[in-house]
Structure formats: structure tokens, C-alpha cells
Design brief:
mainly beta; Glucose Permease (Domain IIA); 2 domains; eight-stranded antiparallel beta sheet; 1 helix; 23 strands; 4% helix; 39% strand; elongated; binds zinc ion
Length: 294
């Protein structure tokens, strides 16, 4: 009984206040799976010291999602730090750092849509600095969470650091088939224009399973114009790969896939002359030849 009372007292101490303004209708969800390790500390003056956001240490993956629906206002670097900020309308804006952005400026996002990949550097353990502003005023985003916050870590304690992401190791190709068009400059078979062929084409019958060549987290699964149905997977170590012209979508953004797990089937959606897989890769956001990883 005494233990229970102590536990309840501890929860009472660490339960964060909930200053959500009644009637604003503005509600946020967690941008990462985690817990707050450094609380919001409102600055006394616009340029004064303080902590203009909360630090959330991740206990799950490293994908950062939009805390509410809105439009991507900024996607790039601020003072060298990868930053995404989302405009939620009525002056509300959330900011996420340090993040390797995966969304272009102007993109419309729903709550839970992937914004990018969390980078190390803000805390000893990998953590997200999450900010909320209402016009010029900095606010505590945890005060607007749909679910109440219970901070289980005593202030000042250092959480267990996350294991570092493994380097991407490609143990094979994503589909059994022969290469029909390598990465590089070529005349496009549909448009006739000479430009970079930004992936490797594998000929395979429609319906042939496409598998993740290494483990990773799905960062997007959507219809992407000329690429048709495309899945992009963050394989760790700064490597993201894309799988285009799929028949449809069978995985969702945020899903974790083991090496060899099916991510879709070969199709001919988008700008395509026949059933094939268009395999793409990026290292630290720069397009590379996926064949150099295999
Ligand atoms: Zn911070
Ligand atoms: Zn191609």
C-alpha cells in the first residue's frame, strides 16, 4: 500500500500541467513516439534565455510526423540544423528539429504524416526539439496534446541513449529480374527527352513481389505522378530507397520492414511502358545510383 501511495505521489509530481486553452479547438498528437526530457521554459523577453519548445526523446523509431494537419511552411536548414515547420492555420505553427526533411515546402500534410527523419545532435540521446507558436508567442506544445502528458522521468535525469542506426546493408536486389536500363543519362522511352534516368530498371512480370533489400522504415507510400505508386524506405545510415511503378500500395508510412519483407508488387503505374521496377536511392538526401549499394 505504501508503495502504491509513493507511486501515485510520484505521478502527481511529474504529471505535466495541461494549459490547453479551452475552446481553441486546436489539438496536437505526438510527433515522435517518446517522452519529454526537457520541458518548455518561456523566455522573459523575445531574445531572452529559455527553452522555446520541448525535447522529446524517442523510445521508438526515428520518423517524425506532423502533430496536426497543415501546410509545410519551411523545409530546410536553419543555422545548420535540419528543420521542418508546419502552418496549421489561424497563426498556429509547429517546428521540428533536427530533422532530415522529406516533405517539400507547400505540401499539405495530415496529422501523422511523415515529415522526415530525426537526426542526432540536440540531446545526449537522440531527441526532437518540438516548438509551437501562436503568432509571435512561443507556447508549450504538450499543453495542446489530445492525450495528457505524464512525464515519468525526474527532471534532469539522463535517459538511456538509443542504439545507433545500423549502416544500410543491401543483401540483394529488391526484385528477381534483369536490369533493362541502368542509372544515368538516357533518352526517355516515353517522352524522348534526354535526361538523367534516376534509378535502375528491372524487368519483371506484373505481380512479381518486390522486397526490401535491407530492413527499414517506410517514409512514404503514395501515388507520385510519373513514378506511379511508389514506396520510399529509410534503411538507416542516411540511405533512403524508392520503389516505383508498383501495382498498388500494400504498406503504409511508418511501417517497419525486415530485410526481405514484401513492400509491394511490380506494376506499370505512372509514366511507364511496361511492367518493371524503377529502383531509386538517396544518401543524405542526394540521389545516387542504387547499384552502388547492392
Ligand atoms: Zn530543445
Ligand atoms: Zn526507370
Amino acid at each position: 500500500m505504501r508503495i502504491l501511495i509513493i507511486a501515485l505521489a510520484a505521478l502527481a509530481v511529474f504529471a505535466a500541467p495541461s494549459p490547453a486553452r479551452a475552446g481553441t479547438g486546436f489539438e496536437l498528437t505526438w510527433p515522435v513516439d517518446g517522452r519529454v526530457t526537457r520541458a518548455f521554459d518561456s523566455p522573459e523577453s523575445p531574445y531572452g534565455a529559455g527553452h522555446r519548445g520541448v525535447d522529446v526523446v524517442t523510445t521508438g523509431g526515428t520518423v517524425v510526423v506532423a502533430a496536426a494537419s497543415g501546410r509545410v511552411l519551411f523545409s530546410g536548414r536553419v543555422a545548420g540544423r535540419g528543420t521542418v515547420s508546419v502552418d496549421h492555420g489561424n497563426g498556429w505553427r509547429t517546428t521540428y528539429q533536427p530533422v532530415s526533411p522529406w516533405v517539400p515546402e507547400g505540401a499539405t500534410v495530415a496529422a501523422g504524416d511523415v515529415l522526415g527523419r530525426l537526426l542526432p545532435g540536440h540531446c545526449a540521446a537522440t531527441c526532437l526539439h518540438w516548438g509551437l507558436t501562436d503568432g509571435e508567442t512561443y507556447l508549450d506544445p504538450t499543453g495542446y496534446l489530445a492525450m495528457p502528458v505524464i512525464r515519468l522521468l525526474p527532471r534532469g535525469s539522463v535517459p538511456e541513449p538509443l542504439p545507433t542506426l545500423p549502416a544500410a546493408v543491401v543483401s540483394g536486389t529488391p526484385v528477381a529480374g534483369r536490369v533493362t536500363s541502368p542509372f544515368g543519362m538516357r533518352r526517355h522511352p516515353v517522352t524522348g527527352v534526354v535526361k538523367l534516368h534516376d534509378g535502375v530498371d528491372y524487368a519483371a512480370a506484373c505481380g512479381t513481389p518486390v522486397v526490401a533489400p535491407s530492413a527499414g522504415v517506410v517514409v512514404s507510400a503514395s501515388f507520385d505522378g510519373a513514378y506511379g505508386y511508389r514506396v520510399r524506405i529509410d534503411h538507416g545510415g542516411g540511405v533512403v530507397m524508392g520503389y516505383a511503378h508498383l501495382q498498388g500500395l500494400t504498406v503504409r508510412a511508418g511501417a517497419s520492414l525486415d530485410a526481405g519483407a514484401a513492400l509491394g508488387t511490380v506494376g506499370s503505374t505512372g509514366l511507364s511502358t511496361g511492367c518493371h521496377l524503377h529502383w531509386m536511392a538517396w544518401r543524405d538526401g542526394t540521389l545516387i545510383n542504387p547499384a552502388t549499394l547492392a
